[in-house]
Amino acid sequence: MSSETIVNALFLISAVIAAGILINAIFPAIYRTSETFGKTTHDADLKMRTDFKFVNMYAKNPEARIWLKNTGSARIARGELESSDLFIGAVGDFERVSLAGNFTIEGQIPVNNFWNPGETLTISLQSAKIPSRKEEVYCSLVLPNGVQRSGNFPAY
Questions:
Q1: Cα 94 from chain centroid?
Q2: 14 three-state secondary structure
Q3: pTM for this model (two decimals)
Q4: Which of 16, 51, 113, 143 could form a disulfide with 72 if both were Cys (CB 3.0 to 4.6 A apart)?
Q5: Do 137 and 120 have their domain in common?
Q6: 3-class SS at 148?
Q7: Distance (Å, rounded) from C-alpha 23 to C-alpha 30?
Q8: Residue 42: partners with Cβ closer than 8 Å, 6 or more residues away
């Protein structure tokens, strides 16, 4: 009878140790998975709330001005704008132009380094790829979070 008690105690101790090992092995995986789901949900939410539209465009070789309106509910930081990709040029023959220092945000009082909903962004740039008069100009802006808008307009 005492041997049965010792065996049962050893089985119980083994079961508790095995449960502890199993929990230590599974808990970090569950934590990482929930963290991944949280980040993915946050990124998807940010993409859904980010939107902008081309308001007006003007191009005359080699200069262009582009006006964009933030129509989403998310504000976009100046750093994100500066690391965005702007492609401009003739349809099928365009180049990437850096936005660093090439834009102003109209309507900021005081300047807060964010492109807020409802504000207009003005981009002024120069590019040798802007076609001459009466040709189509292709323009595409891609934000770091993947939101992209494109448009074609005539050169003057």
A1: 22
A2: helix
A3: 0.72
A4: 51
A5: yes
A6: strand
A7: 10
A8: none
Per residue of the chain (156 residues), give pLDDT as tens: 577 888 888 889 999 998 888 888 887 877 777 777 777 787 777 788 899 999 999 998 888 999 999 999 999 998 999 999 999 999 899 999 988 877 877 766 567 889 999 999 999 888 899 988 788 999 999 999 999 999 999 888
Whole-angstrom Cα distance, residue 55 to residue 71? Answer: 11
Q: How would you classify residue 21: left for phi > 0, otherwise alpha for psi between -120 and 50, otherwise beta?
A: alpha
CATH of the domain at 88: 2.60.40.10
**CA pair distance 141, 99, nearest whole angstrom:** 10
Q: Give yes or no: residues 6 and 69 share one domain.
A: no
Which domain covers residue 41, as residue numbers?
1-49
Tell me, what's the pLDDT at 2?
74
Give the containing element (helix H, strand E) for 89: strand 85-90
Copy the structure tokens of residue 153: 């307009």
43 and 113 inside one domain: no
Same domain, residue pair 69 and 88: yes
CA 81 to chain centre: 10
